[in-house]
Predict the 3D structure of the following.
Amino acid sequence: MLFVMVGMGSAQPPHPSATAHSRDVPVLTWLIVWGVPAVAVTGTVVHARLRMPVSAVVQSLFALACAFLAVIWTRMLLS
């Protein structure tokens, strides 16, 4: 939810006559956007390897939510 609010706050209104271009996005922003899902997936794998099925399922749902939000924020950053 935080990703969506931050992305929508920095998004510019669409202009039909303007060509699409991406702003320069700092590397740290990309590391944060895609680092959180990477850590979540790593946690999922660790819990699965430790044979903790309930924790692995919860972690995998969290990883899917993080990946979904990362894709949304990436689209906002590139628009």
